[in-house]
């Protein structure tokens, strides 16, 4: 099963990260993805450094194996074009604020009249309902409002910004893909499509699977360095002599016992958690990271170095898993982390690269396409 989603056709009207990441996952599984984007308001990711052949490395990753149709959605003809596409591309992903697609005449209720089997997925920060529905937001805001940020970081410093977008991807892209594929399965028996309202704030709240249920049922609100996962105990990062860090996840008794033996710490009977952690800090700070790795790497104790991204890309584990792919043009790109056999990666499209091809497939003549171009439809 090399391309399990072959035959699925998706219109992606999103930009930046959550929607494009979701449609990239679908593309990696064989779905046919058509980006519908503006030529006058470029996707900001496209311009990020570094650039490869005029587009950013990040854009090349997020939009690989897709096609692009540039459309001015405010143009009178745009509704007709999208409606015609919906007859064939029966899954739509959009990421505008609530109400925008309605004003454009491209909302679910309108398009489902064209195709009752349409699966329409809206990804927003706060969802289509509630007092925050029209509020702007970013990943850091969803982490904050959902309570996730309240138990990150250190007591003395408070929450720290994260270098990866947990809310955008884990609470936006992934639930969108899960919901879309569930809707596809449901459509096979019902013959009907549906509307999907994915709110990144909702899903960030839901990601806190161990801490939120406890707080809702009589437990204390989690705090920084207040539980076994966020620094209260041994499970933490430790500074080494060369100002690098090593991670210790030795929660289970057998792992802790082996770690104590390797670090020459007397832990029988078990020391109080804070005391054991202090002894680990004192041990780790006296030698550099490589030295500790050489000593501990062969032990099965849940201890790993904190690598830079470049170091991770060269690690034997990720090389063996073929997670770094070098394309014919020399571009190094992340491989698919999904469980299916990987397919060849096609380059991300230029803005509107397939416009004429798509319009011809919809039945427009070259003359009509040129007239529409002159009228600003593809701006």
From TrEMBL:
SUPFAM superfamilies: CoA-transferase family III (CaiB/BaiF)
Keyword field contains Nucleotide-binding: no
Record key words, sorted: Transferase
Domain of life: Bacteria
GO MF terms, alphabetically ordered: transferase activity
The keyword Thylakoid is assigned to this record: no
This protein's name: CoA transferase
Organism: Amphritea pacifica
């Amino acid at each position: 099963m090399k391309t399990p989603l072959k035959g699925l056709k998706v219109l992606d009207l999103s930009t930046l990260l959550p929607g494009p990441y979701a449609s990239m996952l679908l593309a990696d599984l064989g779905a046919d993805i058509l980006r519908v984007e503006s030529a006058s308001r470029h996707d900001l990711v496209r311009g990020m450094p570094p650039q490869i052949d005029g587009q950013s490395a990040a854009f090349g990753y997020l939009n690989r194996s897709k096609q692009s149709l540039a459309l001015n959605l405010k143009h009178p003809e745009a509704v007709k074009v999208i409606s015609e596409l919906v007859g064939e591309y029966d899954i739509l992903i959009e990421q505008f604020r609530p109400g925008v697609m309605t004003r454009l005449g491209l909302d679910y209720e309108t398009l489902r009249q064209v195709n009752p089997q349409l699966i329409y997925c809206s990804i927003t920060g706060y969802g289509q309902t509630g007092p925050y529905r029209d509020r702007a937001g970013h990943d850091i805001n969803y982490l904050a409002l959902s309570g996730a940020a309240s138990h990150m970081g250190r007591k003395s410093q408070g929450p720290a910004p994260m270098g990866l977008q947990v809310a955008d991807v884990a609470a936006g892209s992934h639930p969108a893909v899960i919901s879309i594929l569930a809707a596809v399965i449901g459509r096979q028996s019902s013959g009907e499509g549906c509307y999907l309202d994915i709110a990144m704030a909702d899903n960030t709240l839901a990601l806190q699977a161990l801490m939120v249920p406890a707080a809702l049922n009589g437990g204390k609100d989690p705090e920084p360095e207040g539980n076994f996962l966020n620094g209260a105990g041994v499970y933490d990062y430790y500074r080494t002599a060369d100002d690098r860090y090593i991670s210790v996840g030795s929660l289970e008794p057998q792992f802790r016992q082996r770690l104590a033996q390797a670090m020459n710490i007397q832990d029988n009977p078990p020391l109080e958690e804070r005391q054991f952690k202090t002894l680990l800090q004192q041990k780790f700070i006296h030698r550099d990271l490589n030295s500790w790795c050489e000593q501990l790497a062969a032990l099965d104790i849940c201890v790993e170095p904190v690598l830079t991204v470049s170091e991770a890309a060269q690690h034997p584990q990720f090389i063996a898993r073929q997670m770094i792919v070098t394309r014919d043009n020399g571009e190094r790109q992340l491989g698919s982390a999904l469980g299916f056999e990987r397919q060849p990666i096609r380059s991300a499209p230029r803005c509107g690269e397939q416009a004429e091809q798509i319009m011809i497939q919809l039945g427009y003549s070259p003359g009509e396409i040129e007239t529409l171009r002159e009228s600003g439809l593809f701006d």
